[in-house]
Amino acid sequence: MTAPLAHxxxxxxxxxxxxxxxxxxxxxxxxxxxxxxxxVWLKKAGPRHGMWRYRVLGALANLARLDVLxxxxxxxxxxxxxxxxxxxxxxxxxxxxxxLVLAQQNNGLLLRHLxxxxxxxxxxxxxxxxxxxxGPAAVQALWLQGLLALDHVHATGTCLSQAFAxxxxxxxxxxxxxxxxxxxxxASLSPAHCQARDVLCYVHSTALYLCESGALxxxxxxxxxxxxxxxxATRTVLATSIGRMAWLRHLxxxxxxxxxxxxxxxxxxLLTPEKR
Length: 276
Fold this sequence. Notes:
The protein is α+β, with helices and mostly antiparallel strands.
């Protein structure tokens, strides 16, 4: 869905008026528009989420004794819009590459595109998947860039919301940007748990690409070197969490398990020393 270009480029766009005019008629939760010389994204409030899913996830985290996987409530609706706007402004103030909030209403946001108008900003997930055919070096370079991007976030004293590779995008200048902030882990978890959660989400979403390209073994020392620079508290949370995931090593490397379990098994292999 696209909006007509503004008739005059001499005047700054009225972002608030554009948001108000297009919000009610937009059927999708997220849509892109052309506005003057810019590309913008309009994100509208979706339906509120039920709490049952968080109770189920919480029970599973308790059974596995994995506090780091304790779900972060995201009720959706206007609360999610308010959370995303607040988090985007905070992250931007810390110097992180996130979409600029151009306008805000209770039920919607207007955000500036992170790339050039009309050009996509590919996610690291898409880029790593496409790089598998080019071999281990190409995939490993992208994976390391994402890991260092997490390092940059954590160095500012904060965390992401869902640090999956699909939510890390590469801007035209090569810098990694961050998207999707409808929840705030820091409201529910300690700083060490928030940062460990980011790491586990990222590794879970990328380790299979390393495995498929043959880069898993060479990525292990990079992971060990990166881990050694974490705070003692974060390393402790990660060590405890990885230890409680040991049952994953018994899963066979089979596609019959489904993609999610394949990802989990590959992540465990990456995070643990090479088998003797």
